[in-house]
Design a protein that fits this description.
- The protein has about 600 residues and is an all-alpha fold.
- Helices cover about 75% and strands about 0% of the residues.
- It has 33 helices and no strands.
- The chain has helices at about 5-15, 45-60, 65-85, 90-100, 105-120, 125-135, 140-155, 155-170, 175-185, 190-205, 210-220, 225-240, 245-255, 260-270, 275-290, 295-305, 310-325, 330-345, 350-360, 365-380, 385-395, 400-410, 415-430, 435-445, 450-465, 470-485, 490-500, 505-520, 525-535, 540-550, 555-570, 575-585, 595-600.
- Helix 3 runs antiparallel to helix 4 (about 90-100), helix 18 packs antiparallel against helix 19 (about 350-360) and helix 23 (about 415-430) runs parallel beside helix 25.
Length: about 600
C-alpha cells in the first residue's frame, strides 16, 4: 500500500469518526481559498450534477470498485470535505458528487452530500441523501441526527420525531437523545409525550435538574400546579445548598397567588443567603399584592442595597416608577430608591441619569440637573442627558449655566439643532444679540427637516433681529414662523407688540393680537399687547377695556404704565398720574416715567 493510501485512510477515519453538522457546528474554518463569496449553483446546474453522478453510479453499481476508483473516490471525498469546512458549498458538492458517482453505496459520502445540501439550502436533496446514509449505515447516530435536522428545517416535525424514535430504538447507547426527542415534543405542544420521554430519560440517567425544570414548565402549561411544586420541592431536597432552587419555588408560589407560601419559602432563602436581592424582590412583590406597602417598600430598598442586583435591573424598576409619577404616594419612595442606586453604583452613569429622570418628573429640577451633570462626568457621550441639563437651565432661567452647558455640549454634538437654539436663546438673554443671531442662523440650517423646530428658530430670530433693529429680517422671521403655525402664540404676541412700538402695520398687528386674545381671553400679557395695539390705533376706549382686564391678574409695571397712558389720552389726568406713580413704585417702568410724573404730561 502506498504512503498516500495510508494517509488517506487515516484522514477518512478521522472525518467519519467525529460528529457531523447535526450534532455540533464545525470548528472555525481556515481562511477561505477565494477572496470573494463563491457563486451559488443554479437549480439547473445542481440537477445536472446529480443526474451525471446518478448515471455514473448506476453504471458502476453492478461491478466491484477497482482499487484505482476507490482511491479516486476517496480523493474526491477528502477534497469535498475540505471545501465544506471552508464553506465553499458549490465546490464541496461538485467533489462529493464525483465521489458518489464512483462509490454510491458509501454511507459517509451520502451523509456529507446531505450535509452540504442542508447548509446550502437544498432541503429536498438533503432529505434524499440523508435517508440513503441512514439506510446504508443504520447504526450511525450522526446520520439520524442529520436527517432529523433536515426534517425539522422543513417543519416536518412528525418525521423528525420518528427519526429520533428510530435512532433511540436501533442504535446502542442512544439514550441521551431522549432529551432531543422530549424537547421536540415540547416545541410541538405534545406535552404528555414530552413528559413521558423525560420520565424515560430519568429512568435511565436518574434525576436531573434540567429535566425537573422542563417538567415544571410542562406541568404549569397543563395547569397542574401541585405537580410543578412537587418537582420544585424535589429539586430543593436534592440540592439543599442551592438557593436558586428555593427562589424558583418561592417565585412559583408568588406567581400563582400562593402568597403565604411564597413568603415562607423566600424567607427560607434569606436564611441561606441573608443579602439575596432576588428574595427581597419576591417579598416586595408579595407584600405589594397583600397591600402592605410599608413592608413592600422596605424589602425593595433592601434589594436595592445589594450590589449583586445589577444596575440594569434597578433601572428597569425605577422606569416603572417613573411611569406612575408624579404621585404623592410614590414620589418619596422613588427618590429614595434612586438615591440608594447612586450610592451603591457610584461609577455608573445610568444610575445618576435615572435619578435625574425621577427628580425631573417629581419637580425637583435643581437636584435633577445635579445628577445629570454627575452622569455626564462619568459618560459624556449621551446626547439625551445633555439635552435634559440644557432644558433645566432654560426653565430655571440660569443664563450663565445655559451658555456654559450648551457650549460644552456643542463641542461633542455640533450637528444637534436644539443645542444651537438654546445657545442662541442664552446669548439673547445675556444681551448679546449678535452672537445669538449667529447661533440661531446656524442651527436653523440644521433644522430644515423639522418644521416645528424651524418655526421656533424663526420666532426667536424675530425677537433677536428686533433687538438689533433689523426690522425687515425680524418681520420676515415672524412671518415664516406664522406660515408654519398660524397660532404660534410667541410670534403673534411679540410681532404685534413690536409693530405697535414702531407704529407700523398696525392693522396687521391688531389682527394678530385680537386673534391671540380670543384664544387666550385671560392672559394678561396678551391683553396688554392687544390694548397697546389699540392705543396706537387711537382706540383709547378699546385699549382701556383690554388693559383693565389685564390688571385683574397682574401688577406688572409696564401694564400699569400703559394704563396710565390710556387714561391720560382719555382726559383723566389725575388717575393717569396715580397709575404712573404706582408703576414707578412697582419697578420696571419705562425710562420716561419720571418725566411723566414730574410734568404730569404724557411722553412717548
Amino acid at each position: 500500500m502506498s504512503r498516500f493510501r495510508v494517509f488517506l485512510l487515516l484522514l477518512l477515519g478521522l472525518l467519519l469518526a467525529g460528529p457531523g453538522y447535526a450534532q455540533q457546528q464545525p470548528a472555525a474554518p481556515a481562511p477561505k481559498a477565494e477572496p470573494t463569496k463563491p457563486r451559488k449553483l443554479s437549480r439547473k446546474e445542481r440537477k445536472e450534477l446529480a443526474r451525471r453522478a446518478a448515471l455514473d453510479a448506476a453504471s458502476r453499481q453492478r461491478v466491484n470498485l477497482s482499487e484505482k476508483d476507490r482511491e479516486l473516490s476517496e480523493s474526491f471525498f477528502v477534497d469535498g470535505v475540505r471545501f465544506l469546512l471552508l464553506e465553499d458549498y458549490n465546490k464541496a458538492l461538485e467533489r462529493l458528487l464525483k465521489a458518489y458517482a464512483l462509490n454510491p453505496t458509501n454511507a459517509a459520502i451520502n451523509y456529507k452530500i446531505a450535509e452540504t445540501n442542508l447548509l446550502s439550502g437544498n432541503l429536498k436533496d438533503a432529505t434524499n441523501f440523508a435517508l440513503a446514509a441512514v439506510k446504508l449505515d443504520p447504526q450511525n447516530a450522526y446520520y439520524y441526527l442529520l436527517l432529523a435536522q433536515v426534517y425539522s428545517s422543513q417543519k416536518q416535525y412528525e418525521e423528525a420525531i420518528q427519526t429520533y424514535t428510530t435512532l433511540i430504538k436501533v442504535v446502542p447507547n442512544s439514550g441521551p437523545y431522549l432529551f432531543n426527542l422530549a424537547d421536540l415534543y415540547m416545541a410541538q405542544g405534545k406535552l404528555n409525550e414530552a413528559l413521558a420521554t423525560f420520565e424515560q430519560a430519568e429512568q435511565k440517567f436518574g434525576p436531573l435538574d434540567e429535566v425537573s425544570f422542563k417538567k415544571q414548565q410542562i406541568y404549569l402549561k397543563q395547569n397542574n400546579l401541585d405537580k410543578a411544586l412537587q418537582e420544585g420541592e424535589a429539586l430543593i431536597t436534592a440540592n439543599p445548598d442551592e438557593v436558586r432552587y428555593v427562589l424558583a419555588q418561592a417565585q412559583m408560589y408568588a406567581t400563582n397567588n400562593r402568597l403565604p407560601d411564597a413568603i415562607r419559602v423566600a424567607e427560607q432563602a434569606l436564611k441561606q443567603d441573608p443579602d439575596n436581592p432576588r428574595a427581597h424582590m419576591i417579598l416586595a412583590d408579595v407584600y405589594r399584592q397583600q397591600k402592605n406597602s410599608q413592608e413592600s417598600e422596605r424589602q425593595l430598598k433592601l434589594a436595592f442595597e445589594s450590589p449583586s442586583l445589577d444596575i440594569d435591573n434597578k433601572v428597569r424598576i425605577l422606569v416603572d416608577f417613573i411611569k406612575q409619577l408624579p404621585n404623592p404616594d410614590l414620589n418619596q419612595t422613588a427618590q429614595e430608591l434612586a438615591a440608594i442606586t447612586t450610592r451603591v453604583h457610584p461609577k455608573e452613569a445610568k444610575a445618576f441619569s435615572i435619578a435625574g429622570d425621577i427628580q425631573t418628573v417629581s419637580g425637583n429640577r435643581s437636584a435633577a440637573r445635579s445628577n445629570y451633570l454627575k452622569a455626564i462626568r462619568l459618560d459624556n457621550s449621551r446626547y439625551q442627558i445633555w439635552q435634559q441639563v440644557v432644558l433645566i437651565d432654560a426653565e430655571l432661567s440660569q443664563v450663565d449655566s445655559l451658555l456654559l452647558h450648551t457650549n460644552q455640549a456643542l463641542e461633542l454634538f455640533p450637528n444637534q439643532a436644539p443645542l444651537w437654539f438654546y445657545n442662541g436663546v442664552g446669548y439673547q438673554l445675556n444681551k448679546q444679540p449678535t452672537k445669538a443671531v449667529k447661533s440661531l442662523e446656524y442651527g436653523r440650517k440644521l433644522a430644515t427637516d423639522n418644521p416645528e423646530l424651524l418655526a421656533q428658530f424663526d420666532t426667536q430670530l424675530g425677537d433677536t433681529y428686533h433687538e438689533l433693529k433689523d426690522y425687515p429680517k425680524s418681520d420676515a422671521a415672524y412671518e415664516a414662523a406664522l406660515t408654519f403655525d398660524a397660532n404660534n402664540a410667541q410670534a403673534l404676541n411679540n410681532y404685534s407688540y413690536y409693530l405697535s412700538l414702531r407704529g407700523e402695520k398696525l392693522e396687521r398687528a391688531k389682527e394678530m393680537a385680537g386673534k391671540l386674545v380670543k384664544q387666550n381671553p385671560d392672559n394678561d400679557t396678551y391683553l396688554d399687547t392687544y390694548g397697546w395695539v389699540l392705543y396706537r390705533l387711537k382706540d383709547y376706549t378699546g385699549a382701556r377695556q383690554q388693559l383693565e382686564k389685564a390688571l385683574k391678574t397682574t401688577t406688572d409695571a409696564t401694564v400699569v404704565e400703559h394704563y396710565g397712558d390710556v387714561l391720560f389720552r382719555l382726559g383723566e389726568v389725575d388717575k393717569a398720574l396715580a397709575e404712573w406713580q404706582r408703576a414707578k413704585k412697582l419697578g420696571g417702568a419705562s425710562s420716561l416715567i419720571d418725566r411723566k410724573i414730574k410734568d404730569k404730561k404724557l411722553y412717548e
